[in-house]
Amino acid sequence: MKNHYTATAKALHWLMALMLFAMLALGFYMQGLPLSPEKLQLYSWHKWAGVTIFLLVLFRLAWRFTHRPPALPASMPKLMQLAAHAGHLALYGLMLAIPLSGWLMSSAKGFQTVWFGVLPLPDLLTKDKALGDLLQTVHVSLNLLLLVVVAGHVGAALKHHFIDRDDILTRMLPKRTQEN
Amino acid sequence: MKRILSTLALAVALLPLSAQAIEYTQVQAAKSSVVFTYQQMGVAVDGHFRKFSSQLSFDPAKPTAARVSFDVELASVDTGAPEGDSEVAGKPWFNTSAFPVARFVSGGVKALGGNRYEVAGKLTIKGRTQDVVVPATVTTQGNTAIFDGAFTIRRADFSIGEGSWAKFDIVANDVRIKFRIAATGK
Fold this sequence. Notes:
The structure holds two protein chains of two kinds.
Chain A: H1 7-30, H2 37-66, H3 78-109, E1 114-115, E2 119-120, H4 129-164
Antiparallel strand pairs in A: 1-2
Helix pairs in contact in A: 1-2, 2-3, 3-4
Chain B: H1 2-13, H2 15-18, E1 24-27, E2 33-40, E3 43-49, E4 52-57, E5 67-73, E6 77-78, H3 82-89, E7 101-113, E8 116-125, E9 128-141, E10 144-154, E11 171-185
Signal peptide (chain B): 1-21
Pfam families (chain B): YceI
Domain Lipid/polyisoprenoid-binding YceI-like (chain B): 23-184
């Protein structure tokens, strides 16, 4: 019981996993499209979803700070524990930095972000082409980095499950799939 | 008679301006600008044109005799994104290879009082001509007159954005055009 994440933490984890993969796919797909009304629509949706994810991450962080996650197994070497914490820190950092970089890129490129077409986010940067291009590179690079860290995250979870045979993966799964 | 009187009153009101008897004719392109704003899925997006030229004559003593023509090189558009620039130069939008220039030619000028005027004229874009009325203000500083104004056109009136762009759900029909013309006198 104690060794499980809360239902809310699990729901947030898997919801964000889905959203991040959908957003990565959408992001890489849409930027290669020729300019069309559909492309502009996809960009707007991507930006709306990005703002939504950012807010979900904030909520998730607040939840995590008020609901202590289960401790790592004592059998884990200290160095591995440190690596696990660093990996999670990187994931949270990227989940915050990526939408921020997208928002700033939009501002610098002169296309304001208006959440669901209703709530305008302030433009923190004024229109500046060079800065916009730089932030685009930053946005893309951070996403590539996210892909690498997520691959490590998934790989580590599978290693824990199939090689270490501990509960690291199952404690993030819905209860009924639990073995004990 | 009434009209003559009001014209006289206007002329008197404008006397201090005309004291130098200056006529503004030399357009200063570097100090002038043409900016446009439109809505993209409800979000205001703006751009501008880098190249344009204007012929203008404005005598503060005879403002209603003012004349102006304005040519915008449509291929010099800056939408904020290179792919946007090449897209709007293409056939569905400006079709700049067939219609390189947008032109405004003034007809009558109406004084609205103070430094406010209304310039009626014809705007031709992409081979289509529409009557437009352009409100403008004039500010004079030394031997320079600054003309500021803004008006709204509907892009569909000029077939700007055809085919898949013809609907207004992504790119709105209304386009707000803001201009500044600086002209020196002699």
